[in-house]
Amino acid sequence: MNLVLGPYGEGVETLLHGEFGAYPSKGSRYALSLTQTALHIQRLVPKPETDQRTVVPLAEVVGCHTLRNRASADRAAYFSVYAYPLKKRKVAVGSGRGRQRAARTFQVDGADDYEKNQAVAEKWAAAIKCLVLGIPISSDTDIAPSLLPRPRRLLLLLNPFGGRGLALQWCQTHVLPMITEADISFNLIQTERPNHARELVKGINVAEWDGIVAVSGDGLLYEVLNGLMERPDWKQAIKIPVGILPSGSGNALAGAINCNAGLEQVLGLELLLNCALLLCHAAVTPLDLVAVTTASGARCFSCLSVAWGFISDVDIESEKYRHMGAARFTLGTLVRLASMHTYRGRLSYLPAADATAHRPISRSITVAPNGRLPLQRLPLHRALSDMGLCEERHAFWGAEPAPVPCPSPGSPPPSSASILPPPSFSFEPGPGELPAGGAGEARVGGPPDELLVPLGQPVPGSWVTVEDDFVLVLAIYQSHLGADLFAAPFARFDDGLIHLCFIKAGISRAALVRLFLAMEKGSHFEQECPHLVHVPVRAFRLEPLTRKGILTVDGERVEYGPIQGQVHRGLARLITGVDRLKIATG
Ligand SMILES: Nc1ncnc2c1ncn2[C@@H]1O[C@H](COP(=O)(O)OP(=O)(O)OP(=O)(O)O)[C@@H](O)[C@H]1O
């Protein structure tokens, strides 16, 4: 058994070991060892003065392609490993971290003929891809490309107006090249109007796709989930893995996915790159959905939260600061604090008997500014799996003029990638409430809510009812309320719980500010604030007794009035990218 030194000096079993040249070569040679979690690269020639070893964690790798030099005299085969490590922190303030592409190309030249070298390159590429995708292999496995599933096909739905309107630009420059290196085929469709995503997913053949990914804020994913639940075949349809590539202003679910992977809390492009990396790793986790019913009887499925009071007020009122991105919530919070309201209401809930009680406690809609796209459409109507190879061509051309690699026979087939044309669209946000059900519509199917009785009837006797004046009520089921609002640190994707949090009237402005500041780190419960209450529940009902107010479901405004919900454990499936691989936090 071959061993390499692990992070603590311990021996770690190697799955593959080999000595290869590099491209561009410059006469260098390397010893490569592949373990379950990392690629260890040791330079052999020229011999370094000190032991020079590079460890590439597989958690940062998205894919590996084999290449062939067109020059017939070259009997070597090549494989390229594509990684996205975190950049080192720069000294300059605000310089950011983020991930940076780092591709290494190795030259397999141990045999006299190309076929033998190519077989070795294929074996390495297959092993690396298996590990990235979580396909179990060991040193006893006969590693071959046949172990790999066919390339994934993802439907990417992009809201060009989400957040600061950068989704398309970021997707073209960062996401598409990365997922192409991960052998993902995709169709990218830009949404043209609210509810477009919902209509699209109602009409697709789910068997043709391995996942639906919203390149947007949380609002578009909400539409995807509800569109799936509105299908007659919702039971099968809702099992299609869904994912998010955050380009909105709240990005709560992306914040939760990032946190679940053990990554540092980040915003903007850094969060997008983390989520794109996790998407390439494919692992899927069950996701709880909460069936929410409003006064008119409309029913929808929510994956984030129901909010009333301070949080929904800030969310909806800060729409006018949308151009600021995530900072809109900070400004909205300050404005709301200046005129803090309390709301009288009756809150009833079914406590989750078996859930560990936690200490007491406590997202958005897209506006197209003028209907114009921030970007012109780029010429991307081609097979995008060419992209990685083009970059390699650069590497070859740039350094040495002669060889031009082309995909070797075992490289993935070209992606059936396309981008549908951007719409010409103008959207004027209406100030009023959404129609009955707002974020949801009565057509939605799904499992029965066996814990709920109709809104017109009293709640069952086993429920607890609190009537009080509230600053806010928040029924949250994910850890994050926004990418940097770690509101419910104890929440898990599939814990089967609604974390009911509320803040009662009487809290001072200063205490409320302290709570929100602490929420960035998720330490607000540690403040032991007596006005803050948290109860894990299976179902809840909120009956506002104050005549006017704002209610949101997953950050989208719904009709104001009595509202109730119950959790359906693990009903959907979320691409979280974390299975057995642990993402390095750098
Ligand atoms: N082309 C479009 N023009 C206008 N609105 C759209 C378009 N496509 C989708 N929408 C609507 O915009 C809403 C919000 O979009 P999204 O969630 O992507 O962005 P966001 O609100 O900035 O982000 P977050 O929800 O994370 O705060 C969606 O619910 C959808 O109904």
From TrEMBL:
One Gene Ontology biological process: positive regulation of interleukin-13 production
Keywords: ATP-binding, Kinase, Membrane, Nucleotide-binding, Transferase
Gene Ontology CC: one annotated term: nucleoplasm
Main location: membrane
EC top class, as a word: transferase
Chain positions covered by the region annotation Disordered: 405-424
One Pfam family hit: YegS_C
EC assignment: 2.7.1.91
InterPro entries: ATP-NAD_kinase_N, Diacylglycerol_kinase_cat_dom, Lipid_Phosphate_FormReg, NAD/diacylglycerol_kinase_sf, YegS/DAGK_C
Residues in DAGKc domain copies: 149-296
Gene Ontology molecular function, alphabetical: ATP binding; histone binding; sphingosine kinase activity; sphingosine-1-phosphate receptor activity
Subcellular location: Endomembrane system
Protein name stated in the entry: sphingosine kinase
